[in-house]
UniProtKB/TrEMBL annotation:
Key word Isomerase present: yes
Superkingdom per UniProt: Bacteria
Record-stated family: Belongs to the PhzF family.
Keywords recorded for this protein, A-Z: Isomerase
Species annotation: Nocardiopsis tropica
Full protein name: PhzF family phenazine biosynthesis protein
Lineage: Bacteria, Bacillati, Actinomycetota, Actinomycetes, Streptosporangiales
Length: 262
């Protein structure tokens, strides 16, 4: 019977950051089974890793929300690397994924993910965006094909958002990322809404920071940044802009382990 861990990512304490379920499996598995397991856990993502015979990678890694498989997930990648470390594997970890090979290394007590950067390109605000968010955008851009970045006037506007979830879900994007410069502490804050893929608000989103990092690196003129995702649970990230790549650093803590009776 497969074992699992529930790991809080982008935090150094339990009951904060973003929880992900992680299963490290020995063999291939049916897609429908994986989707059912993810629905059962009902977390923003459940990660499935299994060893592969590949000179360029150590594990296949896939991510499922409660309703769909997705192409890229940061916090569940961090959680998987943390789980493998607890199993006694030293890393670095090379994962073959829908987004190519992603590497996670440990340095100075942090796990660092090496992800492709997705600098946002400015676009016209989609019809209904301001009404869906309940706030007027200062700037709007598209990171990749499916993630919308929205800059608001200030940190208070980001923290105070109470969006219309159904209206956000009707927009043609997987993620709606809302951000502003922070008043003090981190360089910027953000929140991420993904009701179109079954996640009304994601607590901490590594994927979003592949868009946020180049955006704020350009705005602030610095390659190394700190970020806080201002969800109810909250989470902190260290970021390094490397041109075509983004390094995302964070901590993680295991909060539950068990066995699936499936």
């Amino acid at each position: 019977m497969p074992e699992y861990r529930v790991v809080d990512a982008f935090t150094d304490r339990p009951l904060a950051g973003n929880p992900a379920a992680v299963l490290v499996l020995d063999d291939a598995y049916p897609d429908a089974w994986a989707q059912g397991v993810a629905a059962e856990f009902n977390l923003s993502e459940t990660a499935f890793a299994r060893p592969v015979d590949d000179p360029g990678a150590d594990y296949e890694l896939r991510w499922f929300t409660p309703t769909v498989e997705i192409d890229l997930c940061g916090h569940a990648t961090l959680a998987t690397a943390h789980a493998l470390t607890e199993r006694g594997e030293p890393g670095p970890f090379r994962f073959t994924t829908r987004s190519g090979v992603l590497t996670v290394t440990r340095e100075d007590g942090l796990l660092w993910m090496d992800f492709p950067a997705r600098p946002p390109k400015p676009v016209e605000a989609p019809e209904g965006l301001a009404e869906a968010l309940g706030a007027r955008p200062r700037w709007v851009g598209l990171g990749g094909a499916e993630d919308l970045l929205v800059e608001l006037a200030d940190e208070d506007a980001v923290r105070g958002l109470a969006p219309d979830t159904a209206a956000v879900a009707a927009l043609p994007f997987q993620l709606v990322i809302v951000t502003a410069r922070a008043r003090q502490g981190p360089d910027f804050v953000s929140r991420v809404f993904a009701p179109a893929v079954g996640v009304p608000e994601d607590p901490v989103t590594g994927r979003a920071h592949t868009v946020l990092t180049p955006f704020w690196a350009d705005r602030l003129g610095r390659a190394e940044l700190t970020a806080h995702q201002a969800s109810a649970r909250g989470g902190d990230l260290l970021l390094k802009d490397r041109g075509g790549r983004v390094l995302i650093g964070g901590r993680a803590v295991t909060v539950a382990t068990g066995t699936l009776h499936l």
